[in-house]
Amino acid sequence: MKEDRDAVTVAAELFQQAYEKQMQGELETAIELYQQSISTYPTAEAHTFLGWTYSFQGKLDDAIEECKKAIEIDPEFGNPYNDIGAYLIEKELYDDAIPWLEQAVQAKRYDSYHYPHYNLGRAYTAKGMMRRALEEFQKALEIAPDYPLAIDAAANTRRQIN
Q1: How is 126-141 classified by DSSP, letter by letter?
Q2: 137, 159 contact by CB (below 8 A)
Q3: Which pLDDT value is given to residue 97?
Q4: What pTM, to 2 d.p., does this model score?
Q5: Which three-class secondary structure state does DSSP give residue 109?
Q6: Is 26 exposed, middle or buried (0-12, 13-18, 19+ CB in 10 A)?
Q7: Residue-range definition of the domain harbouring residue 134
Q8: What's the Cα-to-Cα distance from 142 to each of 10, 31, 122, 133, 159, rounded to whole Å?
Q9: Which of 59, 77, 99 corresponds to the end of one domain?
Q10: Which residues of the chain fall short of a pLDDT of 50?
Q11: Is residue 106 part of a domain?
C-alpha cells in the first residue's frame, strides 16, 4: 500500500511539473514529464493532458489516442470526451465529434460542462444547424455566463438566424 501511495505522489508531482512546462510553452519537456507520470502511476488526467499537449503541436491523432486511454482508465471523466470532440472539429469531422461531445455533457466527473456545449454549438454551426447551435451556446452561457467565446458565438449565431 505504501508503494502505491508513493507512486501516486510521485506521479502527481510529475503531472504538476508537466502542466507548468506546458503552460510555459515547453511542450517537449511537458510531454516527457506527462509520460513519466503515466509510467509511474497512470491516470485519466495525465493521459488527457498529454493529449492536450500533443494538440498544441498539431498532433491531433496522437491527442485523440491519449484521450481514449484516459477514458479506459476513468470512463466517468468528462474532459477526454470533450477534447476528442474538439480535436475532431479541428479535423472538420463534425458528425464524428457530436457523439463524443454529447458523452462529455453526460459525464459524471467534469468541472467544465460549458465546454462541450460550446463545442456542440461549433459543430452544429459548421453543419449549418444554426438554431441547434444557438441552443448549445445558450446552455454553455447558463453554466458559465462570462465565457467570452460562447457570448460571441451566441451573438453571431443570433445575427445569422435573424
Answers
A1: HTT-HHHHHHHHHHHH
A2: no
A3: 99
A4: 0.92
A5: strand
A6: middle
A7: 112-162
A8: 38, 35, 17, 14, 20
A9: 99
A10: 1
A11: no
